[in-house]
Write a structure and sequence with these properties.
Butyryl-Coa Dehydrogenase, subunit A, domain 1; Butyryl-CoA Dehydrogenase, subunit A, domain 2; Butyryl-CoA Dehydrogenase, subunit A, domain 3; 3 domains; four-stranded mixed β-sheet; four-stranded antiparallel β-sheet; 49% helix; globular
Length: 386
């Protein structure tokens, strides 16, 4: 199915028309989520045999670009569910069925969220300040503070991890599992009052002895960097789908810029549109070329993941490079759109004003500028000598 078939124009417009209200009220996108659920959006990665659409990463990235063009915060929130279902699909393609239950439960209507990030933990997936305490039945209780938990008001399954310091002879290990919402031992801090991406409601989650049952503990890894397929699958889906959201946002900003330039008239050019101004034309061309670059990079990386391409040690460099390129290009395109659209775009409630705030969130998603450059430098030059 094409993005237009999955998200018809009428649905896109309904979602776009609600975005300003969610942003103004700092409220969650409940109505968008209901519409997307009805459209089968939460089953994009679910195999057709289980009632899903059976799409690959490249196809889902294309659909996410279309959704982000209507409502970036809604697309960013839904991204977290798609990351987990995408991870399950990537692992399955590698012969790893450890997350088969994720696709099965997504087919049944469960909504997955992502509780990985911790304030001050720049090791990300390679260490955790959250305590994972083993229980006699094989389950674990988790105690810690997770930030940027998108879908906070609505998730039914929360993917998280913590550190069991008693494991591996005292060296510790990282324990990954999915928490059922009804299990208790968790609470949401209503602290999401941000500059942009407000409808995602990515609140802080407190884990206070939250119990993950044995059947939902799906990985135990040593601390520190490792080559487990789970780590690759998370990076591949997270960075690619995140890049898709910001690319879609930039595409919408560019569309609005072109409309504004053709609509606005210039006394300097005898009442003709600003599309006749050489300086404005240069800016539009520059933004178009930036979009061309990131669109091609996004499509290539996503297609390589689907095809199981072997980039060896360069895979992580490619993934973080894509994220950095997409979010950076999106900021540049939105900035250009503001410049060429005139003062009306500066007023509260203008779509470009909201996109200008939303796009800044791209700075804070992993991998950040410093981490990405370090990853790429290590891929090409090896690690720093000690």
């Amino acid at each position: 199915m094409t993005p237009e078939e999955i998200l018809p124009d009428a649905l896109v417009e309904r979602i776009r028309n609600r975005a300003a209200g969610y942003d103004r009220d700092n409220s969650f996108f409940h109505e968008d989520l209901a519409d997307l659920r009805d459209a089968g959006y939460l089953k994009l990665f679910v195999p057709a045999s289980d009632g899903g659409l059976g799409l690959g990463l490249a196809e889902v990235a294309a659909v996410q670009r279309r959704l982000a063009g209507a409502a970036p915060a809604t697309a960013l929130g839904v991204n977290m569910h798609l990351v987990w279902t995408g991870v399950a699909r990537v692992l399955d393609s590698l012969g790893d069925s450890s997350l088969a239950f994720v696709l099965k439960e997504a087919a049944e209507g469960e909504l997955f969220a992502f509780a990985i990030s911790e304030a001050g933990n720049d090791s990300m997936l390679f260490d955790s300040a959250t305590v994972a305490a083993p229980l006699p039945d094989g389950g674990y209780s988790f105690t810690g503070r997770k930030v940027f938990t998108s879908l906070s008001p609505a998730w039914s399954r929360l993917g998280t991890f913590g550190r069991d310091s008693s494991a591996r002879g005292g060296d510790g290990e990282l324990v990954f599992g999915f928490l059922d919402r009804e299990a208790g031992g968790h609470s949401t801090v209503g602290d999401w009052d941000t500059l942009g991406m407000r409808a995602s409601q990515s609140n802080t989650t407190l884990l206070e002895g939250a119990v993950v049952r044995p059947g939902r503990i799906f990985r135990k890894l040593p601390t520190g960097p490792n080559q487990d397929p789970l780590i690759f699958a998370i990076f591949a889906c997270f960075e690619t789908l995140l890049s898709a959201v910001y690319t879609g946002l930039a595409e919408r900003a560019f569309e609005l810029a072109v409309e504004a330039v053709n609509r606005r008239t210039s006394a300097k050019y005898g009442g003709r549109s600003f599309a006749q101004d050489p300086d404005i034309r240069w800016k539009i061309a520059d933004a178009a070329m930036a979009l061309d670059t990131v669109q091609a990079q996004l499509a290539a990386v996503a297609s390589d993941v689907d095809a199981g391409a072997d980039h060896g040690s360069m895979w992580f460099a490619k993934l973080v490079g894509l994220k950095l390129r997409a979010t950076g290009a999106a900021r540049a395109v939105v900035d250009t759109a503001i410049q060429v659209s005139g003062g009306a775009s500066y007023f509260r409630g203008a779509e470009l004003e909201r996109l200008y705030r939303d796009v800044l969130a791209g700075v804070f998603h992993p991998s950040n500028d410093e981490s990405a450059h370090n990853t790429v430098a290590n891929a090409w030059l090896g690690p720093l000598e000690r």
